[in-house]
Amino acid sequence: MDMKRLLLLLGPTLMIFIGLQVLENVIITFMLFYSWLLAVPLLVGGVPLERFKTTSKSVMLGLGSGLLFFLFIFGGLNWLHVYLLDIDQLRVLLLEWGFSAKGEIWLVLVLLVANPILEEFYWRGFIFEKLRKEGTAKYAILMTAAFYTLYHLLSVIPIFDGMYGVVAAVPVFVAGMFWGYIREKTGSITAAIIGHVLSDLGIIFVYWFLIR
Q1: Quick count: other Cβ atoms within 10 Å of Cβ 204?
Q2: For residue range 89-128, what is the model confidence (pLDDT) as tens digits?
Q3: Cβ contacts of residue 50 below 8 Å, gap of 6+?
Q4: What is the pLDDT of residues 148-181, one digit of tens each?
Q5: 80 vs 67, 173, 205, CA distance in Å?
Q6: Whole-number Å distance between alpha carbons of 169 and 157
Q7: Helix (H, G, I), strand (E, B) or coil at 63
Q8: CA-to-CA separations, 51 to 87, 182, 185, in angstroms, rounded
Q9: By three-state DSSP, how is residue 47 classified?
């Protein structure tokens, strides 16, 4: 793998690391991260318009998978949060990250609009397209899921107690694999975006009903 390809795969993780770990500023983290996800594909070649096609099949796949992920996230943490989360410590962390009452609306907008669209645009759109031209579908699905999961470790490890942060990244990898699979089968990122929106809605529900 050449350095240019490696940089494209590691870029989002580097942006999160610089923002959260080095500068310790969530707003800057968001700016660095989402600017990378949007600007790099546009500068390097973009995503073919056919990857945004919407069919009844893609909508149903997106809604069905998204609902399952939503139930898994919200239902699972609603049931197990006593064992997995230190709610008081998490509230302090979120306040440090800027998720106060004034920041809640931005949290919702970022998670439900910017995050699913730009992440899928980058991973299942731009990166998948490049990797698929170089290798098999399995290779493209695995690589996009792995590097998509990598930077989530930086955000989930501080949230969960002990090694549960690493375990919490497993569903992220599973979701990435599934969204890559339906991207391959449908030729579109529409289903992945819809599923991603509903998955992030599960996170919003966890915040709103368990943590807030």
Answers
A1: 17
A2: 777 777 776 666 666 777 778 888 899 999 999 999 999 9
A3: 187, 188
A4: 999 998 877 777 766 766 777 888 999 999 999 9
A5: 19, 20, 15
A6: 9
A7: helix
A8: 40, 12, 12
A9: coil
Q: State the total domains in the chain.
A: 1
Q: Which residues contact 148 (CB under 8 A, 6 or more apart)?
A: 119, 123, 172, 173, 176
- Residue 113 lies in domain: 3-211
pTM of the entire structure? 0.91
The rounded distance, in Å, linking the Cα atoms of 156 and 52 is: 30
Residue count (the chain): 212
- Tell which residue, 212, 207, 137, 122, has the closest CA to residue 177: 137
Token pair of 131 as six digits: 């990797």
List phi, psi (to 5°) of 160: -100, 155
CA 155 from chain centre, in angstroms, equals: 11
